[in-house]
Please model this.
Amino acid sequence: MDNQIYMCIDLKTFFASCECVHRGLDPFETNLVVADPSRGNGAICLAISPKLKSQGIRNRCRIYEIPKNIDYITAVPKMRMYMEYAARIYEIYLKYVSKEDIHVYSIDESFLNLTPYLKLYNKTSYEIANHIKDDVLKTTGITATIGLGTNMYLAKIAMDIIAKHVDTHIAYLDQKKYRQELWHHKPLTDFWQIGRGTEKRLAKHGIEDMYGIAHFPEEVLYKEFGINAKYLIDHAWGKEPTTMEEIHGYEPVSKSVSNSQVLFEDYNYKDAYLVLKEMVEINVLTLSSRHLVTNLISLRIGYSKDIQPPTGGARKINQTTNVYSILLKEFCALYKDTTRRDTPIRTLAISFGNIKEEKFEQYDLFTDFDEIEGEKNVQLALLDIKSKYGKNAVLRGMNLCEKATTRKRNTLIGGHNAY
Model:
């Protein structure tokens, strides 16, 4: 094996496995779906148990897509419980490697750099990986799948494409093995970071597999994909220059504070306007808590059933601030200028861009600074109360309106029930 060895570990159908273990059930023998039926028969299943997968049901399906002849348990998402399981599993990782050698990719997937520990434990990467996998299962009841590779990309691919289909649930790839076994693997969407859109664009050039990418004229790929062609070409050859140290040391060049939500039902123009005002307040409080200011706002409105393309846009404002009344006024103007009044709305997304430290705050000559200071003090007081007594401890009158969403969303984690 090469000098560097990375491990990518995935917690198998994590949410569904947590629900089964919590109930004392075997995920491999139980039909269980994690979904919220209150969102309708078209609600997406966040996870299904391995038992349901073995019957040909795809993950992330909708409730109505599950065959009527299959009996199953429906578990309403409990995000706090899943986070607690994930924290316990992270503690298991820390028994074997330091936090500097762990990159948490998502709640159920992490990368571990095993390179420094091969000599320390005098074990092979496979032995260390197997020990961690067994510890996770013994401690939490959750089954893990592991990929090992000479870089993080190969570790991820070994897990995604090979390990999930072998009895040991562990697979290894180096560049040579990758080219031998996966250069002609199809479909391309099985590979990390290749979606259907990329697959279609490659198909225009007659490219159907990684071998095709690796041997296609690079100048054509750069013309088609721009700078992203570099990642496609590197991955086609099994290369990944990014290291764990670079991930931990990364600092984004530009910063923003964003907020988006999918509404539980179609909203009309007026009711969506109410939700927008709530979202602006949430983002403003985030700015205040971090002592940041902004002078760039953006809005995206998505319509029901894709009746028409999304609307919105970005707008630079004359003041650099984190004051709710100023930013709300700017967002309301942008909403009124760009949003259709006769089309049902289903998604809203807002963002504050060009984020700076509060010392760069800037206002025009007509600003009442006493009023600004008073409003900022109110925002800080709200933050203090909410941090001590909960997000719903203090609410605006608009939050009590029938179509408001903040009160409900304050009880959710990741858009789903906490318990």
Summary: The two ends are 45 Å apart (CA to CA). The mean pLDDT is 92. The first helix runs from residue 14 to 22. Residues 6-13+80-179 form a domain with the Alpha-Beta Plaits fold (CATH 3.30.70.270).
